[in-house]
Structures are given as structure tokens and as C-alpha cells.
Amino acid sequence: MKQINFAPEQIEQLTRESIYDSHPIVRRRCLALLLKAHGHTRTQVATVLAIDVSTVRVYFDLFLEEGIAALKRLNYHGKRNALQEREEDILAALEAKPPATVKEAQDTIKTATGLHRSWTPVKEFLRRNKVRRRKMKAVPDKGKGDAQEAFKTGTLEPLVEEAQRGRIHLFFVDAAHFVLRPFLGYLYSRTVRFLKSSSGRKRFSVLGALHVVTQELVVLSDHAYINATSVCALLQKLHDANSASSTVPGFALSARLGQCPIPEVRAGPGESPTVEYPACVSAALLS
Q1: Domain that holds residue 31
Q2: Element (H, E) at 154
Q3: Cα separations (Å) of 164 from 22, 169, 262?
Q4: Within-domain flag for 133
Q5: pTM of the entire structure?
């Protein structure tokens, strides 16, 4: 049996490491050497720590070779992570068909790679790769990029140029609909608390027209809905406001409000502007 000699500072360090080291294996190794320093045999150390005598012999050999530093060195690097090895394939499959739950992610991974993993490693894989549960958002599905680009370059930009030169008045018209409803938060309470709110759905609708050049805003508001009559009332208000102008007012409705053709406002030199409404707008004005 090899003789082991302990210096006082080594015994002090073994005592400290056997209590405060973060890893349980390191604490057990240091405790085995500490028991040896206090005169216990290898068999007694194995009995106290409930480990095999050959394991105690390995601890002693480590200490004889490199001291306490060898006891604190852990060469275990964990099991190979098959999920990380197939990371690119798994992420591509998840992007192609985003799962709604971790269970669905497990099935997607198994289908793409043949790897079946439990909930915990799959959840950890998603967290490590910043694949989080995110709320979906809606986008309009009726957008026509080519038509919009053609309208922008062929119609809108020439009109903006005309407005900047002072030859026409150009307005952008749109509406906003505000709904009066309570904001329900969380309170610490022994019972459920109720907040009085309006019955049904109360709306506050705002219809506005923004001048492209002057940034002047003309607004109509109502507690009802925005319909053809509301749009015609706004157009009439804009017409009255610009009736003394010798320039030609023009109006550009938003996509939602532009259900009818845009009325034309014409004026000759020195004449008052006259509005030529399409049939749908004229009918709304006359009703």
C-alpha cells in the first residue's frame, strides 16, 4: 500500500472542498482523502462512503499524482446530443411546419430524423435554438403587389407632384373605429371582482382626410358606422372648404373606403369648383 502524507494546508483545503465544492463527486473524493488523513484505512473509507474499494484506490492514486487539483478535475463531458448533431435538419423541419405544442415538435423531429426524445430534451433543444411559442399575427391576403406598385408609380406619384405644385388639392381619406370596452387586469382578492361596462359594443368612428401638402386634417366623427353617406358628407365638407380656390381639388380614398369611383371636382379659370359625383355617391347625397 502506498504511503500518503498530508500537509496541514492540504487537510484544511480538503475539509473546505468536501463541504463547499459545487460538484458532489468532487466533495466525495475530498472526503475520502480527508478520512484517510485522519487515519482511516481504505476499506473503512469505502464502507463510510458506501463505494467500492477500487474506487477509493483511484481517488488515492489521483491525489498522489497531482494533488487536490486532480480530485477536482472531471473528465465527463456528458452524452452525445443527437439533436444538436441534426440541428439544421430539425430546424428546417420545424420552420416548414411550425408545431403548436412540444408534443407536435416531438413528432416533427421523429418524422424528420427518426430520433424520439422525451418532452424535456426537446424543450431544451427549442430553448437553446430560440424557438419560442409565439402568437401568430394576421396579414391581408388580398394584397396585389404588382397592381399596387403600378398604382403608386402611374397614378399616385403624379398626383402628389401636381399637389406639390399647387395645381390640385390631394387628400388621403381613411377611417378608424374605436370600441369602448373595459380593460380587465389581475387583482389579489378572495373572490372574483366584476367591473361595470357597457352592454353590447359601443363604437366611436372617426373619418378623416389628410392634405398631402399642408398636412391639414379634416375630421368627421360619429357613434354609428362609417358608410357611403359619411364619406359623401366628408367630401362635401372638403368641397365647401376649397370652393374659393382656383386650383382643382382631388381626393384619394383608402382601399376600404374606395368602394365607389372617386368624385371629380372641376373648375375653370375664375369659376367656382363643381363636384361631379358618380351614381353611387350622388344617390347617397340625395338620400
Answers
A1: 8-72
A2: none
A3: 73, 9, 20
A4: no
A5: 0.41
